[in-house]
Structures are given as structure tokens and as C-alpha cells.
Design goal:
This protein is of the alpha+beta class. The protein has three domains: 54 residues, Structural Genomics Hypothetical 15.5 Kd Protein In mrcA-pckA Intergenic Region, Chain A; 90 residues, Alpha-Beta Plaits, CATH 3.30.70.580; 79 residues, Pseudouridine synthase (2-Layer Sandwich), CATH 3.30.2350.10. It has seven helices and 17 strands. 31% of the residues are buried.
């Protein structure tokens, strides 16, 4: 790793978030090669310099890759000013040993959506998955009302013009009929805010249920809402489209 700011180094090493690192550094809790540094922008070499927090060496944290079935009603943030349950509350309940670990979610699912979410401390892996340039496909099962017509299904598949530009899915198909509605499957390579909901609303349909079932080559499978498990090494590669 090339020289970087001290705050970034702590983040890259998987010790804590960059924002939290700045707070620690400014409070005088971090030293480099035996000297306390209070400027988060101080340049360091994470591979050569000895970085210590509260007297404890910051050895590079083992890389962690987790998959969660995010339940509906849970927000994808570290904390919530309205007191709503977060993915970190789910993580702490499902895997108590990770309660104090620094992990961040890769991408987001809005509060009303559920399904597959990755958490990791590997910033490069997370950035690759989240980058629009990677075009990692994400697949969703969506229940819309009223029942979608064949004409509107074709319109949806051809792309819908939204306020922030055209939105063209990679694939759209009907899964099955639902009570006064339709379950459809949509695959996107974009990740715009509430994109599927806005696309459906543009054609006069209300999204009642939205579940992300796949990211890259990794499927949600039988993981139940609120459950968390580690990704295998093969799954971590597949998620980012790496073979």
C-alpha cells in the first residue's frame, strides 16, 4: 500500500472507519513509530510504519466478507437519529462476536426493501462492487400492483426515463401472478436511489415488496431475514465478478 493519510491508513487496515479514525487521531490516541500524531492527514506507510492505537498495535485486520438477509424495516446505516433498527443491530444479534468489529455495508437497500447485503472490512473489494464502472449485476424480485400488462413489461424492459436520466434494466421477466398484482424479476447494473420503485411508478405501478436475491454470482439462497453468514472464498470472488 503506498503512503496515505493516517486516517485512511486505519480505514484501509480494517481498524475503523475513516471518520472515527479522525476522531481518535485528533484526541491523541494514535501514535506512529512511537510518536503521537494529531493530524489525520499525516502521511504514513501502512506496510512499514508501526501504528498504535491506545497502546495497542494495529495489525492488519483479517479480511471479513459477510452476507446478510436484511429484513424489511431496517436501515443501512451505522446509527439512526430516529431510533430505527439498523443493519448493525441485526449483525450484533445474529453474530455477537462481530459486535465490535469495523465492517461497512457494500451498497444500500432502502428501509422498505429486504434481501442480500454484503458487509466487509475490505475497502478495495467493497469499492469494486459498489463502483458503477464494475457493472456488477444485481437481481431483485419485485411485487407490483396492479397486475402488470405485457405492454408495460416490454416498456419496462426497454427502459424508462427518470428525472436523473434513462434507466435500462439488464433483464425483466414475470415470475408469477400475485394477489391483485404480479411478481417480476429485474436485473440492474446500476444502483441509483430507489431506482426500481421509481421505474415502476413511472408506468403507474406501486411496488409492494422488493427483495434483492442476487449480487454478481452470489445468491441469497435459503438465508432467512435477519440471518448472517460468512461468504466462502469462492463466493467473495464471484460477487465481484472475479473468476
Amino acid at each position: 500500500m503506498p503512503p496515505v493519510s493516517l486516517a485512511r491508513a486505519l480505514s484501509k487496515l480494517g481498524v475503523t472507519s475513516r471518520a472515527q479514525a479522525r476522531t481518535w487521531i485528533e484526541a491523541g490516541r494514535v501514535s506512529v513509530n512511537g510518536r503521537a500524531l494529531t493530524d489525520p492527514e499525516s502521511r504514513v506507510d501502512p506496510d512499514r510504519d508501526r501504528i498504535v492505537v491506545d497502546g495497542r498495535p494495529t495489525d492488519r485486520a483479517p479480511r471479513a466478507y459477510l452476507m446478510m438477509h436484511k429484513p424489511k424495516g431496517v436501515v443501512t446505516t451505522r446509527s439512526d437519529e430516529h431510533g430505527r433498527r439498523t443493519v448493525y443491530d441485526v449483525l450484533t444479534t445474529a453474530v455477537p462476536g462481530w459486535a465490535d468489529a469495523w465492517l461497512f455495508p457494500v451498497g444500500r437497500l432502502d428501509r422498505d426493501s429486504s434481501g442480500l447485503l454484503f458487509l466487509t472490512n475490505d475497502t478495495r473489494w467493497g469499492a469494486r462492487l459498489a463502483s458503477p464502472d464494475s457493472s456488477i449485476p444485481k437481481t431483485y424480485h419485485v411485487r407490483v400492483r396492479p397486475p402488470i400488462t405485457a405492454e408495460d413489461l416490454d416498456r419496462l424492459a426497454s427502459g424508462v426515463v427518470l428525472a436523473d436520466g434513462p434507466a435500462i434494466p439488464l433483464a425483466v421477466s414475470v415470475v408469477r401472478d400475485a394477489d391483485r398484482g404480479t411478481w417480476i424479476e429485474m436485473t440492474l447494473t446500476e444502483g441509483r436511489n430507489r431506482q426500481i420503485r421509481r421505474m415502476c411508478a413511472r408506468l403507474g405501478y406501486r411496488v409492494e415488496t422488493l427483495v434483492r436475491i442476487r449480487i454478481g454470482g452470489v445468491a441469497l439462497g435459503e438465508l432467512k431475514p435477519g440471518e448472517v453468514r460468512p461468504l466462502t472464498a469462492a463466493e467473495a470472488r464471484l460477487a465481484g465478478g472475479i473468476t
